[in-house]
Amino acid sequence: MPFTLFVAVALSITAFPVLARILADRGLENTLLGAFALGCAAIDDALAWCPLTAVVALSTSGTFADSTERGGGPRMWATRGKPRTY
């Protein structure tokens, strides 16, 4: 099941450079529609990496509870421990 989730989420991430190249080849990168399409694709790519990291944390630990205990999931971006003082 974790491998299936990983493949499904990984395939849902768009090919942003391919879209940029297609728009550049067609001369649409400077139009309102081209800028809107690139902006939407950039946001979509940024948001798609979040479930991918959760799926990777889940697949390496086995359960969702284990993935959050080991620093994955929602705690992934939190600071760990106090800063060192010298």
How is the topology of this model organized?
Layout lengths: L1 H11 L3 H11 L5 H30 L2 H6 L17
Helix pairs in contact: 1-3, 2-3
Tag the structure with descriptive keywords:
mainly alpha; elongated; 67% helix; 4 helices; single chain; 86 residues
Question: Can you tell me about this structure?
Answer:
About 9% of the residues have low confidence. The chain has four helices and no strands. The protein is elongated, with a radius of gyration of 18 Å. By secondary structure, it is mainly alpha-helical. The longest helix is centred in the middle third of the chain and has 30 residues. Helix 1 packs antiparallel against helix 3 and helix 2 runs antiparallel to helix 3. It is 67% helix and 0% strand.
- Whole-number average pLDDT? 75
Please report the number of helical segments. Answer: 4
- State the secondary-structure class: mainly alpha
Portion in helices = 55-70%
Shape: elongated
Gyration radius, to the nearest Å?
A: 18 Å
Task: Report the biggest beta sheet as strand number plus sense, adding barrel if it closes.
Answer: none
Summarize the entry for a quick read.
With 86 residues, the protein is mainly alpha-helical.
